């Protein structure tokens, strides 16, 4: 349904002449109705994958296909019209725009369910609807407002970039359920970029991204034990590495 075909991205190094490769010959096929999680170390390339799917980054090499159409040259708006949407890792603020305006822009059906979308992410509509989407919001509130806008859309591909970031524990549990319920209702291809085991465990498929490449992909049963082992092994820094082979392998 959505296919990344040998995608590489080279970006100019700031204050220099060189280039840096942030995605390296990456290929993957996302299928409709499946719930994917992308995980991996900081700086590995997860957000860059989301941005190349959304049309924010243009690939230096490779093609992107959506429903058998080559969309590599399509811009963000055209891709949004096709039903691809992305909730940013750090949601942008829109000074001068009120929460209800932002929700209205996002709503697939005019003015339908605006209040409910806020309630679903644990925000009181009376308190938030008329506030401006500016710096006055906390990081966690912004994440929740952005997820509320996603709930109003009717997408075929929906990407959440670290929805858990900055969200308190109580809201986190609620958000996970909301994301999962939306997926089960609409059967889009849902892609959640996350570091949270609780979300990873829900995936049909986990994609492990590091150094701009997909290192592994498979079911949680196949992938999670390896990830946990890697985390444990980082503890060798604490034990001094003496028992490294003994305790971790
Ligand atoms: N616009 C850019 N200019 C220069 N370097 C960039 C740009 N965008 C991404 N990078 C670099 O590409 C690499 C991958 O970044 P990306 O944001 O995709 O990582 P990530 O896996 O999402 O990390 P995190 O878990 O910290 O969110 C990083 O080294 C980052 O610094
Ligand atoms: Mg990221």
Number of E-type strands? 12
The helix/strand class is: alpha/beta
Q: Please bin the fraction of helical residues.
A: 25-40%
Mean pLDDT: 88
Low-confidence stretches: 241-249
Q: Termini separation (Å)?
A: 39 Å
Q: TL;DR?
A:
The protein is of the alpha/beta class. 38% of the residues lie in helices and 28% in strands. The strands form three sheets. The chain has a six-stranded mixed sheet with strand order 6-9-10-3-11-12, with helices on both faces.
Comma- or semicolon-separated keywords:
single chain, 6-stranded mixed sheet, 4-stranded antiparallel sheet, 38% helix, binds adenosine-5'-triphosphate, binds magnesium ion
Descriptive account of the structure:
This protein is of the alpha/beta class and 249 residues long. The protein has two domains: 35-58 and 82-218, Rossmann fold; 219-249, no CATH class. The chain has helices at 46-54, 76-82, 99-106, 114-120, 125-128, 139-152, 169-186, 197-200, 220-234, 236-239, 244-248; strands spanning 2-12, 19-30, 35-39, 61-66, 69-70, 84-87, 94-98, 132-133, 157-161, 189-193, 205-210, 213-218. Strands 6-9-10-3-11-12 form a six-stranded mixed sheet, sandwiched between helices. It has a four-stranded antiparallel sheet with strand order 2-1-4-5, covered by helices on one side. Strands 7-8 form a two-stranded antiparallel sheet. A hairpin with a 6-residue loop joins strand 1 (2-12) and strand 2. Helix 3 (99-106) packs parallel to helix 6 (139-152) and helix 4 packs across helix 6 (139-152). The chain is globular and about 50 Å long. It starts with a strand and ends with a helix. The relative contact order is 0.16. Mean pLDDT is 88; it is low at 241-249.
